[in-house]
Amino acid sequence: MLDIRVDGSKIVLSGDLDNTPQARNALSQVIPLLRARHEWIVDADDVSVVPEGVTLWIHFSQENLARVGVSYLPSQLSTILQYDDRYVEVRAAAGAFLG
Question: Which residues pair with 40 in a beta bridge?
Fold first, then answer.
């Protein structure tokens, strides 16, 4: 079960990042909060990632985070995204990897 919370300028992910209806719903619930800032830090250190979840996150990022500054704290998700060609658009637009 994916849990997402917004804590100041951080998007904190925990649980299972997969492509279930629950994960898609959790992501959609946070969209209105994303419009409040132009810079975000993604903390996904406590999230378990499966390939379908990476695909879900890439689509979510392209649709909701591509126009803002996004930095990633070190995590399994950030490592995968650094080398995933599908994430190039988001990375080129606003992405940075910290640590």
Answer: 70
Distance CA 44, CA 77 (A): 7
Q: Distances in Å between the alpha carbon of 74 and those of 36, 66, 84, 85?
A: 24, 19, 15, 19
pTM of the entire predicted model:
0.86
Domains of the chain as residue ranges with CATH: 3-97 (3.30.750.24)
Calpha distance 70→31 (Å, rounded): 14
Residue 80's Cβ-side half-sphere holds a number of Cα atoms within 13 Å equal to: 18
**Four-point Cα dihedral 83, 36, 1, 41, nearest 10:** 40
Query: What is d(CA 90, CA 38) in angstroms, rounded to the nearest whole number?
Result: 14
C-alpha 80, offset from chain centre: 12
Predicted confidence at residue 13, as pLDDT, reads 97
